[in-house]
Write a structure and sequence with these properties.
single chain, alpha/beta, six-stranded parallel β-sheet, 12 strands, 33% helix
Length: 229
């Protein structure tokens, strides 16, 4: 018996002498299913998002969201706006005047997306399926390449969401997300075939060796979340 076999035999013998428990210990409940009221979750989300260099704008109604987003577009001099194809977002965007809106057929394959046209978008407008309070993150369904590029390519990204989509953390939202991943009749596309969910936390940021934080290198420089209460 060589040295290797001798060592392995000693390990096997030691393991047989101490086989360990027959059952695993109970899992600690680190992620409670419910955590606070909707108002407290919204406050936590805003604090977390702000810490990640993101911005949140509270809106009382959809009409309030239309007005506030239009005013911000004018301040940002946003002329060309890319919009996801979601019914609620379409209703919001129809009330934006003097804005050149880009709403292509949202093709499934990247080669079908006009990258030149996408690169000229000033503001990307997307819809968050869920908001995660603990990290200030937006869970965004992206069934097509167009949806994904809207989150990455434009210098400014507007995210619209409703207060009712707030969840304490990802584990609380995971059952709903996983159910949609295997449901072929998902309202935003067959997510189990070609799409994905993006978890976006604040604007793009990176730092060099001198620890200088730079925003907007790999994605939007500003991420603004409009939450309709």
């Amino acid at each position: 018996m060589g040295s290797r076999e001798e060592i392995l035999e000693r390990i096997r013998t030691a393991l047989n002498d101490f086989p360990g428990p027959e059952t695993l210990p109970p899992m600690t409940d680190l992620w409670p299913a419910h955590s606070g009221t909707a108002d407290s979750l919204l406050n936590t989300f805003e604090t977390s998002l702000t810490a990640a260099a993101g911005e949140m704008i509270r809106c009382v109604t959809t009409e309030d969201a239309v007005n506030k987003s239009r005013q911000l577009m004018q301040q940002l001099c946003g002329k060309r706006v890319g919009i996801v194809q979601r019914t609620w977002i379409q209703e919001v965007s129809e009330k934006w005047t003097d804005i050149e809106k880009i709403v292509p057929p949202a093709p499934e394959h990247p080669e079908e997306v006009s990258l030149r046209e996408m690169a000229e978008i000033d503001i990307g407008v997307v819809h968050a399926e869920y908001l995660l309070a603990d990290t200030g993150s937006c869970v965004i369904a992206s069934p097509t390449a167009f949806d994904r590029l809207l989150c990455y390519l434009s210098p400014v990204c507007f995210v619209f969401a409703k207060k009712e989509t707030l969840r304490p953390h990802l584990p609380a939202a995971w059952p709903e997300i996983s159910a949609r991943m295997v449901h072929p009749n998902d309202p935003v596309g067959a997510m189990n075939q070609s799409g994905e969910f993006l978890i976006v936390t604040g604007p793009s940021r990176t730092a060099d060796i001198e620890k200088i934080l730079i925003l907007g290198v790999h994605g939007p420089k500003r991420l603004i979340v409009f939450v309709v209460e």
